[in-house]
């Protein structure tokens, strides 16, 4: 009985030790993961920059032109330390995952223009040139930079530019027809180019003076000063196309009618009042005469004879 009880206590102790060991191992894993994550967050990251062409959106090209892309990257270098590693830079127009890995420089079949800097270089650049581009060269080109310096992240830095290649197309404008607006209202003039390539920039002019940039021109509280001919101009690297719209501004009909009533209506009403007053006066005179005639017939006959 005593030995059985001792064995149970021993087993409970072993189970407790097992749980303690498991908990310690889990705690160690969590602490290590946090430490690794913190170390990764503290590492520097290369940030390449596309220096040419200087565009913020897609880069539009025409068939037959030469594509020239330039990319630059900077790295912090401690010249008192001799263990710096070189900067690798390359271009990719593929979405394949290996293209964005640090091992990509060895995978030449998916990389373009691999560049390697000197070990102590604090800057590096790479260029990509494609002559006589075709529609097949339409793609997203990514500049990638990597260094295996200890204080830099193992993940390469990258930046992309979208290149579009198409044949040039002359702009064709669709413009608002001539407009007649009432003074004090607003008007919207629209100028659209739906076919021009490269993309055109649209501007509005009046009497050779610049008015607005963009396809929509809105004028609030229009006056006779706003009336006239407005010219819409669509421009790209190869063409300029112009169109025009006439804006006419007229007085408010209701306001004009009110003014007419004031100018014409008031004298008419005055003449009407005078006429009615004269007519009433004549009627009263005639009524008085008739009353006298009825009261004194002989006097009325004498007045008739005299008349």
In short:
The protein is an alpha+beta fold.
How would you describe this structure to a colleague?
By secondary structure, this protein is of the alpha+beta class. Helices cover 31% and strands 33% of the residues. It has helices at 2-42, 253-295, 297-306; strands at 49-52, 59-62, 67-74, 88-92, 112-116, 123-130, 139-146, 157-166, 173-175, 179-182, 187-193, 201-206, 209-213, 216-219, 228-235, 240-250. The protein has a 5-stranded mixed β-sheet with strand order 2-8-7-4-5, with no helix packed on it. Strands 10-16-15-12-13 form a 5-stranded mixed β-sheet, with no helix packed on it. β12 and β13 form a beta hairpin. α2 (253-295) crosses α3 (297-306). The longest helix is centred in the C-terminal third of the chain and has 43 residues, at 253-295. Mean pLDDT is 81; it is low at 33-40.
Helix content: 25-40%
What is the chain-wise order of helices and strands?
HEEEEEEEEEEEEEEEEHH
Q: Which runs of at least 5 residues are low in confidence (pLDDT < 50)?
A: 33-40
Strand order of the largest sheet: 2-8-7-4-5
Mean pLDDT: 81
The percent range for strand residues is 25-35%
- Give the strand tally: 16
Shape: elongated
Largest β-sheet summary: 5 strands, mixed
Helical run tally: 3
Structural class by helix and strand composition = alpha+beta
C-alpha end-to-end distance: 167 Å
Radius of gyration: 47 Å
């Amino acid at each position: 009985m005593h030995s059985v009880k001792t064995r149970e206590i021993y087993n409970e102790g072993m189970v407790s030790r097992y749980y303690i060991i498991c908990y310690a191992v889990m705690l160690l894993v969590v602490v290590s993961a946090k430490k690794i994550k913190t170390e990764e967050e503290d590492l520097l990251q290369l940030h390449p920059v596309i220096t040419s062409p200087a565009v913020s959106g897609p880069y539009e090209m025409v068939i037959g032109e030469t594509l020239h892309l330039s990319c630059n990257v900077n790295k912090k270098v401690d010249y008192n330390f001799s263990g710096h590693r070189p900067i690798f830079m390359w271009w990719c127009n593929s979405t394949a995952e290996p293209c964005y890995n640090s091992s990509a420089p060895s995978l030449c079949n998916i990389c373009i223009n691999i560049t390697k800097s000197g070990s102590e270089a604090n800057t590096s650049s790479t260029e990509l040139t494609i002559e006589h581009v075709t529609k097949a060269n339409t793609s997203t080109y990514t500049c990638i930079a990597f260094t295996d310096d200890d204080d830099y992240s193992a993940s390469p830095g990258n930046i992309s530019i979208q290149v579009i290649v198409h044949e040039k197309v002359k702009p064709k404008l669709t413009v608002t027809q001539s407009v007649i607006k009432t003074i004090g209202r607003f008007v919207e003039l629209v100028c659209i180019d739906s076919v021009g390539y490269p993309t055109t920039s649209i501007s509005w002019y009046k009497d050779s003076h610049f008015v607005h940039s963009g396809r929509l021109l809105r004028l609030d509280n229009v006056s006779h000063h706003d009336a006239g001919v407005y010219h819409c101009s669509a421009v790209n690297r190869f063409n300029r196309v112009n169109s025009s719209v006439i804006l006419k501004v007229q007085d408010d009909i209701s306001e004009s009618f009110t003014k007419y009533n004031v100018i014409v209506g008031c004298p008419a009403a005055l003449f009407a009042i005078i006429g009615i007053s004269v007519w009433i006066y004549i009627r009263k005179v005639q009524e008085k005469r008739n009353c006298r005639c009825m009261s004194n017939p002989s006097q009325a006959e004498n007045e008739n004879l005299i008349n």
